[in-house]
Design goal:
Elements lengths: L1 E7 L2 H4 L6 H17 L2 E6 L7 E4 L8 E4 L9 E8 L3 H10 L11 E5 L3 H4 L3 H14 L4
Antiparallel strand pairs: 1-5, 1-6, 2-5, 3-4
Length: about 140
C-alpha cells in the first residue's frame, strides 16, 4: 500500500523562507529512517506557489484555463510530500506521526492519503497492462 504524506504550506513556505538548518537535519534523519526501513519512495519540498501555474477545466470538453500563482489559500497549497510504501494504514500513520513538524514553530500540517493502485481504478485488463508497461519503463511496479 502506498501513502502520500502531504505537507501543507505555511505563510513562510509561501514566502520562500527556507527551513532552518535544524529542521533540515531533522527531516534528513527522518528520511534516512524511512529509507533504512525500505519504505521510502520519494520525498521532496516544493517551491512557493508564486512560481506555480494552476490549470483547470471549467467546461466539460472545453479548453483548459491557466492561472499563474501565487494562490491565496495557504492551507490548500502543498509545500512538499513524502511517498511511502507500507503494509497497512496503521503503519503509514505511525511513520506520519514520526515526521518532524515540517515548518517548525508549531505551524506544520500533514495530510496522510492512500495512493490508488491502478487496478483499483479500472477492471479493464488491457488498460491495466498498458499502465503496467508505462510503470515498468519508469522502474515502478504500482
Amino acid at each position: 500500500m502506498r501513502f502520500m504524506l502531504v505537507v501543507k504550506a505555511s505563510k513562510d513556505s509561501e514566502a520562500g523562507v527556507l527551513p532552518s538548518p535544524e529542521l533540515v537535519a531533522a527531516m534528513t534523519k527522518y528520511n534516512e529512517e524511512l529509507a533504512k526501513a525500505g519504505v521510502l519512495i520519494a520525498a521532496d519540498g516544493l517551491h512557493p506557489s508564486s512560481g506555480a501555474v494552476r490549470i483547470s477545466y471549467p467546461e466539460p470538453g472545453g479548453k483548459p484555463k491557466v492561472v499563474d500563482g501565487p494562490f491565496a489559500e495557504t492551507k490548500e497549497i502543498i509545500a512538499g510530500y513524502t511517498l511511502i510504501e507500507v503494509k497497512s494504514r496503521e503503519e503509514a500513520l505511525e511513520w506520519a506521526l514520526r515526521m518532524p513538524d515540517p515548518h517548525g514553530y508549531g505551524e506544520g500540517e500533514i495530510e496522510l492519503r492512500q495512493v490508488f493502485d491502478f487496478a483499483d481504478i479500472t477492471p479493464d485488463e488491457e488498460l491495466q497492462a498498458r499502465e503496467a508497461a508505462v510503470r515498468a519503463r519508469l522502474g515502478r511496479s504500482n
